Amino acid sequence: MNHSALLVIALILLSGCGPSSDVPQSSAAMPATANEDARLPLPEYFDCLRENGGVVIAAHRGGPADGYPENAIETMQYNFDHGVRVFEIDIAETRDGVLTLMHDDRLNRTTTGRGYVSDISWEDLSSLTLVDNSGQRTRYAPPKLTDALIWARNTGAILELDRKKTTSFANIAEAVYAAGAEENIIMISYNDDEAAEIAAIDPAFMMTASVRGGRDISALEARGVDSRRLIGWTGTDRPDAAAWDRNARNDVESAFGTLGRSGERLDDIYLADGNGSEFQDLAEDGLVMLATDRPLEAAEAMTADDIAIEACGR
């Protein structure tokens, strides 16, 4: 056998000898899927949802569950495998400038570490283990934002990016571009100034902003926001079907959250009787994106999410 043939065999053998990973092959290590080009661009995807009476469920902090910590790729994969397609995640920055997924300023609640995220290096952070919401140590480590973005691009998931005060929209945008994940992200804004800042960085980014009708939409458009790439956030206090209708008449989709403090959030109130029919009521009143702490139970109680997948894909 000649030298070239031996080299080919060696490369084939080496390619199968790498370390195993807890992240399924459909995630970070997976090449782009064959049907990636067939996915609707995000503005058209949300238009499709609105026009067909579909709802997409957004899992707050990735949808943590027993054994699955918040803000982890493995947690998102678990929910993705059960039909969830949108994941809200929190973006913080380490001392040495690495963007990671972390909600709190401190490491204490969600990791085996202590102290502030902004005071730790990525090398030290990546050696920690994530803790689930029951306080149990898991097998998973804090991920880089880049790895989460690549996972989303490859699976078709959508990530809502919630910027923490340790980083900037510009830094997050750089990571999005580097991962080629522009069609897989929604930037979260908390006021009109933030919405304008996002639009100034890239007017093609999808974003959420507080919107309850034409006046709010016009105010944002005057500051550079493209309403075709806008999702109107309408809070977590009580459903506002009138605002959802006003937004829809301006071709803007509406989002609402049933998440919050355990025992007080609408998630728990709706599911207290074991029925959860109120989730479907939200869809019938015109809601397009539901942000929830209990994504799988909300999905079980709804048919609008099934309509969304059938009509609009992902």
Structure description:
The protein has helices at residues 3-15, 42-52, 73-81, 122-125, 145-155, 169-179, 192-201, 214-221, 241-249, 266-271, 277-284, 295-301, 304-312; strands spanning 56-59, 86-93, 99-101, 158-163, 185-188, 206-210, 230-233, 253-257, 289-292. It is an alpha/beta fold and 314 residues long. The protein has one domain: Phosphatidylinositol (PI) phosphodiesterase (TIM Barrel, Alpha-Beta Barrel), CATH 3.20.20.190. A hairpin with a 5-residue loop joins strand 2 (86-93) and strand 3.
Defining key terms:
single chain; alpha/beta; TIM Barrel; 8-stranded parallel beta barrel; 14% strand
Quick synopsis:
This protein has 314 residues and is an alpha/beta fold. 37% of the residues lie in helices and 14% in strands. The chain has one domain: Alpha-Beta Barrel (TIM Barrel).
